[in-house]
Design goal:
The chain has 21 helices and twelve strands. The chain is of the alpha/beta class. Helix 2 packs parallel to helix 6. This is ABC transporter related.
Length: 599
């Protein structure tokens, strides 16, 4: 166990160094701006470093000799010096701020692009609230640590170097005495930073969990009230909130104890310079002006060290956030286009599953050797109990996942050999709970074809039986919708989603419980729109209400990841198997009377 702590500390230091290198790669994107910023930083540091030297020099050379004219001239030079320093410091803050804000904007953009490109399997095991926390909270933490203070940090580094050179040049003994506390300061900073880094890492983790809980509870507030879960949700939120609070309190307790420690070392160094410098001045070894310069330099010397040390502890929170950000950016994109992937040619609509095996968990198969063949223009109905694998078949056609074994082919082309974009461009989908977005009605219809014309949008709406409803809205097609399509009803959202699918004119169409959860009148409109949409297209229809798939060319009955029956509605009724039993149960007739009538 004795060797564990150094190894862990070494690993943490290596991880932090790697994180810093990744962050510097973003900084180098603005390499043309960096020299300008560094020049301004250097000018600001020089103006701060030479001030005490001239003040000490004026005491010995001007004040003691009564040279009033020279003193006035020196004061003018100091005013010019510090004025130039103010301009340089202001310029460096503006320039560095410009660089940092663009860097952080690029970081947010990269996170968003990564989230959008990750496969669905990643989202199966991730929480939306935690991802939002990385995009917003973690980046904001980096902004707070680096956005404004990095300019000060760079200026203080240059100032510190200039002060050390000036102190050693004026008097070597006093210069070395002033620097005796530096090793103590480095040790103190390292100790506090190690404690702070561990606590800030916990704060970033707990704020991610808190954000995930908040996002989930806000999205399900209706269900919480309906099932009397409000108090339970509040209690769970209180636990997470308290964990985040305690982590932040511990981090603040560590950082709040740090500054007094640095102040003590500052006072110690000042007392040493005053005592030893006063002794040298009394014995005539140095002048009063030299001691005065050193006292001013000691104050300036510790000011940048204090700021740098404070920045170092604050940066621990930023590094904890950056670690989470880069962990997300390094998440492997499991579903990539093959290096030699080609564009999918215009689809005719033939779909084959050849002994397909797949599972969301490698240890548990969902599909166990599925074979199916859909001819162009056929309607394929997928029926079976929940969890049997119906939606999984749909996901594989769209290549949201890759099969473990076998192949999914469209027009005899393996979907893994073409680009995902060219494949999905020719497949339309209408879900049970279609998502509409904040924006106009027209923008929602044109979601899959944003550059289409208004005439095409209206033609798609007419085909989807929703044109009349849209024109009755206050602003027609330019009516603004809220989050998830509020305030439209479920049926109205469904009709708009059908228009969205119509607009891209897909050769393969997927309908997942598209007529459930809507009233009878709207269902008639939806069924009519779907009938038009299905014409001339290969379609896969998931339906629990078997009465909606009686006209299917093929009905596939799926149980436990296998196709147990296959045929037309009439053939399966004749067979008196699983499908016939399901159909009879849905009609409320467990006996064969109704089934015989169906024949």
């Amino acid at each position: 166990m004795r060797g564990t702590i150094p190894v862990v500390a070494s690993e943490q230091a290596s991880k932090q160094l790697s994180t810093l290198r990744r962050f510097l790669q973003y900084l180098l994107l603005y390499r043309k701006e960096i020299p300008i910023a560094l020049t301004l930083v250097f000018i600001g540091a020089v103006t701060q470093a030479i001030g005490p030297f001239f003040l000490g020099w004026s005491i010995d050379r001007l004040i003691e000799k009564g040279n009033l004219q020279g003193l006035l001239l020196l004061l003018g030079l100091l005013a010019l010096n510090y004025g130039l320093g103010i301009i340089a410091i202001r310029g460096q803050i503006i320039r560095v701020g410009w660089i940092m804000q663009r860097l952080l904007a690029q970081l947010r953009q990269d996170i968003f692009l990564k989230i959008q490109s990750l496969p669905l399997s990643f989202f199966d095991r991730s929480e939306a609230g935690d991802l939002m926390s990385r995009l917003l909270n973690d980046v904001n933490t980096v902004n707070q640590a680096f956005g404004l203070t990095i300019a000060q940090m760079l200026g203080n580094i240059f100032s510190l170097v200039g002060i050390i050179i000036a102190m050693l040049s004026i008097n070597l003994q006093l210069g070395l005495l002033s620097n005796l506390v530096v090793p103590l300061m480095i040790f103190t900073t390292s100790l506090f930073a190690r404690w702070a880094r561990a606590r800030f890492r916990v704060t970033r983790q707990t704020i991610g969990e808190l954000s995930a809980k908040l996002e989930e509870d806000i999205g399900s507030v209706r269900e919480a009230q309906a099932f009397n879960r409000v108090q339970t949700n509040i209690a769970q939120f209180d636990v997470l909130n308290a964990a985040n609070r305690d982590a932040n309190v511990e981090a603040v307790a560590i950082t709040s104890a740090f500054l007094p420690s640095i102040d003590f070392l500052n006072t110690l160094a000042t007392a040493g310079v005053l005592a030893y410098g006063g002794y040298l001045a009394v014995t005539g070894a140095v002048t009063v002006g030299v001691v005065t310069s050193f006292l001013l330099y000691v104050q300036q010397f510790f000011r940048p060290i204090q700021i740098l040390s404070q920045f170092y502890t604050q940066a621990q929170s930023a590094f904890a956030g950056l670690e989470r950000i880069f962990l997300l950016l390094d998440e492997p994109s499991e579903l990539k286009d093959a290096p030699d992937a080609t564009e999918m040619p215009p689809i005719q609509g033939e779909v084959r599953f050849e002994n397909v095996k797949f599972g969301y968990n490698p240890d548990q198969l969902v599909l166990k050797g599925v074979n199916l063949h859909a001819y162009p223009g056929q309607m394929i109905a997928l029926v079976g109990p929940t969890g049997s694998g119906k939606s999984t078949i749909i996901n594989l056609i769209l290549r949201f996942y890759d099969v473990f074994a076998g192949a999914v082919k469209i027009d005899d082309i393996d979907v893994r050999s073409v680009t995902q974009a060219s494949l999905r461009r020719q497949i339309g989908i209408v879900l049970q709970d279609n998502i509409l977005f904040s924006g106009t009605v027209a923008e929602n219809i044109a979601f899959g074809a944003p550059h289409t014309t208004q005439a095409d949008i209206e033609a798609a709406a007419q085909l989807a039986n929703v044109h009349e409803f849209i024109t009755s809205l206050p602003q027609g097609y330019t009516t603004q919708l809220g989050e998830r399509g509020a305030p439209l009803s479920q049926g109205q959202r469904q009709l708009i989603s059908i228009a969205r699918a119509v607009l891209i004119n897909p050769r393969i169409l997927i309908l997942d419980e598209a007529t459930s959860s809507i009233d009878t009148r709207t269902e008639a409109l939806v069924q009519s729109a779907i009938a038009r949409l299905l014409q001339g297209r290969t379609s896969f229809v998931i339906a629990h209400r078997l009465s909606t798939v009686t006209q299917a060319d093929q009905v596939l009955v799926i149980q436990q990841g296998q196709i147990v029956e296959q045929g037309t509605h009439a053939e399966l009724i004749e067979r008196q198997g699983v499908y016939a039993n399901l159909y009879g149960l849905q009609l409320g007739a467990a006996d064969t009377t109704v089934l015989q009538n169906e024949k």
